[in-house]
Specification:
Blueprint (H helix, E strand, L loop, with lengths): L24 H17 L3 H5 L2 E8 L3 E3 L1 H11 L3 H4 L1 E13 L2 E11 L8 E12 L2 E9 L1
Parallel strand pairs: 1-6
Antiparallel strand pairs: 1-2, 3-4, 4-5, 5-6
Length: 143
């Protein structure tokens, strides 16, 4: 018979300290959002979409999966420069979940003339993930 005393039982490894996001993670995420706004306001949908991960999920009036489907969604909803209007984001709150994930909530507003459909806006929640290509939106829930 083998007897094991508590003194012989190895101690469990201490828990790893909580990791913090690298310096400037929030600033890098804000830069992605700011770049999207600039690209949108230049009428550059392709530039705007660079902020998204290829496997993005967009939740709006329906669920759209993948960058190409999101591209079609934007081009369908905003087919002309007038319908794209002038985009602004406001009330942004960036919260780090861990070093490679963050969420952003905020408001969006499009100022458009009558020919573009008139002004509109709403709120959004974005889930960002740090990838080999920088911070990318993996989930966009916009209403």
């Amino acid at each position: 018979m083998v007897t094991i005393s508590w003194a012989q039982t190895p101690n469990p490894a201490p828990a790893a300290p909580a990791q913090k996001a690298g310096p400037g993670a929030e600033a890098q995420i804000r830069a992605v959002i700011d770049r999207q706004m600039v690209d949108w306001n230049r009428g550059d949908t392709d530039g705007f979409l660079l902020g998204y991960d290829p496997k993005v999920v967009f939740v709006g009036e329906k669920i759209t999966r993948g960058l190409e489907e999101v591209r079609v969604r934007y081009q369908t909803h905003y087919p002309t420069r007038a319908s794209m209007g002038h985009l602004t984001f406001s009330d942004l709150e960036i919260k780090m979940i861990d070093p490679v994930n963050a969420f952003v909530i905020g408001r969006w507003r499009l100022e458009r003339g009558a020919e573009g459909g008139g002004d509109t806006g709403g709120v959004f929640t974005l889930l960002f993930k740090k990838t080999a290509n920088g911070w990318k939106i993996v989930v966009d829930h916009t209403s």
